[in-house]
Design goal:
257 residues; single chain; 10 strands; Rossmann fold; globular; alpha/beta; 3-stranded antiparallel β-sheet; 7-stranded mixed β-sheet
Length: 257
């Protein structure tokens, strides 16, 4: 693993002055569910952290970030907010205006600026994802209609999870949760990473989000950055490395605002 910027843990303090440990909130991305964080959850819990991994609705950036913001409102004390893939776009908006979010952690993630979308970023940094998705119309109550994106089962292993066993990729293909196209087309209205310290894990073998896009986003935000040899699903393939980065973010002094 290549550490691009060094983090320094805060000096030890006695029990009477030590700040409260943050709650870690893990937000999954498109084509996944909260169970994608299981390996990270287990490791964080063993280190003594309270962890919440809510279900990201995957119905559009505005809908999803509003929902995750409401989850954050239910949590007492400081929060470290973590997003994988599309979940990065969600946390960038959901954390806006919440002073209890002390750190943002991006795992091979989207990190849009205001006015950007997943689609506009991928146009600048193309990846293999465009060849791996299929569109399926959906309808919901009240006459609502739209289009969902799924990963093609025969492309999921190569594009999404190349460093996992093929048997695991087949299971992911069957259990995937689709994302509405609005998840990627809606333009960000907030970019909380501009005023909340951020950490970024770049997956060097990512074919879902171009690693150069991840590096660009991290550099633009001034993120503490690590690069690892991983496919897009680093939290599944390399949960220890992802956990280590989250813990570094959790141990960092809270920002002054």
């Amino acid at each position: 693993m290549t550490l691009c910027t060094a983090d320094t843990a805060p000096a030890a303090t006695d029990a009477t002055t030590a700040p409260a440990r943050p709650t870690i909130v893990l937000v999954h991305g498109a084509f996944a569910d909260a169970s994608s964080w299981n390996g990270v959850v287990e490791r964080l819990q063993r280190r003594g952290y309270t962890v919440i991994a809510p279900a990201n609705p995957l119905r559009g950036l505005y809908n999803d970030s509003t929902y995750i913001a409401s989850v954050l409102d239910s949590i007492k004390g400081p929060i470290v907010l973590v997003g994988h893939s599309y979940g990065g776009a969600v946390i960038s908006s959901a954390a806006e205006g919440n002073a209890r979010v002390t750190s943002l952690v991006y795992v091979s993630a989207l990190m849009p600026d205001v006015g950007e979308s997943g689609m506009s970023l991928s146009a600048r940094f193309p990846s293999a994802l465009a060849t791996a998705t299929k569109s399926v119309p959906y309808r919901a109550a009240g006459g609502v209609t739209g289009t969902d994106l799924y990963l093609k089962p025969d492309r999921l292993h190569q594009v999404f999870a190349a460093d996992l066993p093929e048997s695991t990729a087949r299971l992911l293909a069957v259990t995937q949760r689709p994302a509405a196209t609005t998840a990627f087309s809606e333009k960000a209205k907030a970019a909380a990473w501009k005023h909340i310290p951020s950490w970024f894990l770049v997956a060097k073998h990512d074919r879902t989000i171009n690693p150069d896009q991840e590096r660009y986003e991290a550099r633009r935000a001034g993120s503490h950055t690590v690069e690892i040899d991983s496919s897009h699903v680093a939290m599944l393939a390399h949960p220890e490395a992802v956990t280590d980065l989250i813990v570094r973010a959790a141990m960092a002094p809270p920002p002054s605002r």
